[in-house]
TrEMBL record:
Superkingdom assignment: Bacteria
EC number: 3.6.3.-
Family: Belongs to the MoxR family.
UniProt xrefs under InterPro entries: ATPase_AAA-3, CbbQ/NirQ/NorQ/GpvN, ChlI/MoxR_AAA_lid, P-loop_NTPase
Lineage: Bacteria, Pseudomonadati, Pseudomonadota, Alphaproteobacteria, Hyphomicrobiales
EC main group: hydrolase
Protein name: MoxR-like ATPase
Annotated source species: Rhizobium metallidurans
Cross-referenced PANTHER family: MAGNESIUM-CHELATASE SUBUNIT CHLD, MOXR FAMILY PROTEIN
Length: 336
């Protein structure tokens, strides 16, 4: 679930001190992002949680909701080297990964040289990822999971940290190729981007149509981000929260004794969903100023962690149900 340095566990006092420092850094990141992105608190929070947890996020929403702006802002604020790829139907895998070109030296001797593609970035913005062909989408798979690519039998490691923040248009739109389940599962969270509230939209109108545009400042570095990601993995998780994660993830799978799931869910989330929940619950606790995650974190993260990792039966879809309805029901049962 991400590439991380392994370090000796910190003692309790050291974790508290490191967490307090991380809290201050995260608060600065939040205030810097809010200068440019108005409203959309849950979108900013979930996208940041994915990055703090060391993972990738999929932002889903109609065009014009500042998804691209959010990603470029995060790149600047977190001090990450960022690249952007606009996915189109004619995009080839080599346009993402890079390709070999033939060089000729003074003696006339020819050799191949690898020219790196835009995937070699700490923050990769994959814009409208579902507009590219499945072959090109799958070129990102190895990179997202293994943090390296292979071209002509040669392995090339990606920079650290490496995060993919992809945007996707709702699948009902023309000219889209649904992402395969294996690729969807590589995203730690799916973040739904909805229309802004009235007050936020008013602020957008006033602040973005003048002469000067607010620019965010870099407040972290890649090295500091890696330190915070390592700290998050060292945060303690109580047995109660671990059991809550297991109960929720397993209740979303058919054949596990949950009547509503058996009736409505065709296939459910795998163990990677539980891993995502463990990491993001810790990150959310830290984001909100706490040193250990609670069951509230688990329930709040149920939708972004689970919704892209399960599918409804044909009968449930015919009745107009959505995956979100099913997850809301499971959370309600868990809160019991």
């Amino acid at each position: 679930m991400g590439m991380m340095k392994t370090e000796a566990p910190l003692d309790e006092k050291a974790i508290v001190a490191a967490a307090e420092k991380a809290l201050a850094d995260i608060a600065t990141v939040r205030s810097e992002v809010s200068k440019v992105i108005f409203g959309q608190e849950s979108v900013v929070e979930n996208t940041l949680l994915a990055v703090l947890s060391g993972g990738h996020a999929l932002l889903v929403g109609v065009p014009g909701l500042a998804k691209t702006k959010l990603v470029t802002t995060l790149g600047e604020v977190l001090g990450l080297g960022a690249n952007r790829i606009q996915f189109t139907p004619d995009l080839m895998p080599s346009d993402i990964l890079g390709s070999e070109v033939m060089d000729q030296d003074e003696t006339g001797r020819r050799s191949f040289r690898f020219v790196k593609g835009p995937v070699f970035a700490q923050l990769l913005m994959a814009d409208e990822i579902n507009r590219a062909s499945p072959r090109t989408q799958s070129a990102l798979l190895q990179a997202m999971q293994e943090y390296h690519i292979t071209v002509a039998g040669q392995r090339y490691d990606l920079p650290t940290p490496f995060h993919v923040l992809a945007t996707q248009n709702p699948l009902e739109q023309e000219g889209t190729y649904p992402l395969p389940e294996a690729q969807l599962d590589r995203f730690l969270l799916q973040v739904d981007v909805n229309y802004p509230e009235l007050a936020a939209e008013r602020q957008i109108l006033l602040d973005t149509t003048g002469l000067a545009e607010t620019r965010p400042q870099a407040v972290l570095s890649a090295e500091r981000l890696i330190e915070i990601q390592t700290l998050i993995r060292q945060m303690p998780v109580s047995d109660k929260v671990v059991d809550g994660i297991l109960a929720l993830v397993r209740s979303a799978r058919p054949g596990q004794g949950n009547a509503a799931t058996d009736k409505n869910v065709a296939w459910g989330p795998g163990p990677r969903a539980g891993q995502a929940m463990m990491l993001c619950a810790r990150a959310r606790a830290l984001y909100e100023g706490r040193l250990a995650p609670s069951l509230d974190d688990v329930h709040a993260l149920a939708e972004p962690v689970l919704q892209h990792r399960m599918a409804l039966t044909f009968a449930a879809r015919a009745e107009g149900m959505s995956v979100r309805d099913v997850i809301a029901g499971l959370v309600k049962q868990a809160q019991g």
